[in-house]
């Protein structure tokens, strides 16, 4: 009796069982890692922002930007670092959408509540959340994937002469058929058509490498979307509905060129690639897919954004669970910011602040006392409130407004602008903007780039102008003189310090009234400057306080 078939069967059974066990083990490990990492700060922050800003770039270029955070405000508040601290998205679509969302302040409470509804669903349905995470992770991230470029002008991505490529793809088949009637002519035509198609394929593919990878990523996004749609999701708001609705437009697109542009292929895949080359498969399939995207451009964008919203909601929920405390913001119609337990997201062991700012305000205080950090914490939370509906505070209430800052100006060598010119330009853009939309303006050390007399005069003039407009202006400054000049128009707050023999300590707490102390000279002493220089500086400052004139040095 021949036992070989039985042995082969047993061997195949053992192999298949082993593979099945390994796959199941990988699935369990992936699931465990997702559960373990959820609600923890993102580990990978070492990536280029340029790789994920395309969706924002194309959207900003082609839509109204009146409610978007401008580049100066974004840089002043180091929003790239804020983004990286929040970004726990599982896909490139999600993180590109998050990056844009943090730029685009939402002035519609209903839209923010829709976003909140999805976040709440994910929070209260952990089983479904993990399933969605798995499919988001399977799509994964592909830097510079190019998918967002198809949103605004997909027609420009279409290849010219599509009918020619269809004809060229059929010629090898016709040539093979001719062999049965005229072997010489058929063989010659087959060889020539295969050679011609190979040359065309390689020339086009070199130009289209990125586009083929993009279509491959889109194919994976469709797969993930279909899987997510199979998960039972009820009362989740509009985003799952939008995804299901617009996914139907692309149901005819299946596994689209899944190996296009990939390296490290097996022998079988090399053979498959050669067959695709002869029949111009990827070229014709690419044009077919791009034609579909062009025809269904509205559905494509809606699908992209719905997918992005789901990944964003997952990210925001994880972010909330990764910080000490947070709140959902409250919105009102008055010119007021009320907050309890407010802190700066990027500060380690931050101090909490609570107060109500219901008027234009000047915040004074000595060096390193925390006034600039506090102003940035307010500004950042104003942005987070109107984008991801989350604030780093126990409570945070505000009016819908565009956040604008003038905080970290510097010389612009390329434009030939001095520090002072850069400051003026930064302030002018705020003055222009408040004519069209309600703004909350944050200014740090206004007009510091010029001499004291002109700085005080010009600053008080600018602040008076801002006080007459429909905006909320919060200024951090060393110039205590401004608190006296502007006392009828601006409220005063301050941060303080305690000077002791062994150093200076700060409480980093916001207090009412203007600052009454200075510490710059004392800091010179603590930093080890020679005693004669320190004593000379203290005497000069004391003489100025008495006479309001500087003595000759």
What would your notes on this structure say?
The protein has 19 helices and twelve strands. It has helices at 4-37, 54-62, 71-76, 79-86, 92-103, 109-124, 126-139, 162-178, 183-229, 238-247, 267-278, 281-295, 297-322, 371-385, 419-433, 452-467, 480-485, 520-526, 531-547, and strands spanning 330-332, 337-342, 353-357, 361-364, 395-399, 402-406, 439-444, 471-477, 491-494, 497-500, 503-506, 511-512. The chain has two domains: 47-322, MutS, DNA mismatch repair protein, Chain A, domain 3 (Orthogonal Bundle), CATH 1.10.1420; 330-518, Rossmann fold (3-Layer(aba) Sandwich). By secondary structure, the protein is an alpha/beta fold. Residues 257-266 have low confidence and may be disordered. Helix 6 packs across helix 13, helix 12 packs across helix 13 (297-322) and helix 18 packs antiparallel against helix 19 (531-547). Strands 6-7-8-4-9-12 form a six-stranded mixed sheet, with helices on both faces. A four-stranded mixed sheet has the order 1-5-2-3, with helices on one face. Helix content is 55%, strand content 10%. Helix 15 (419-433) links the parallel strand 6 and strand 7.
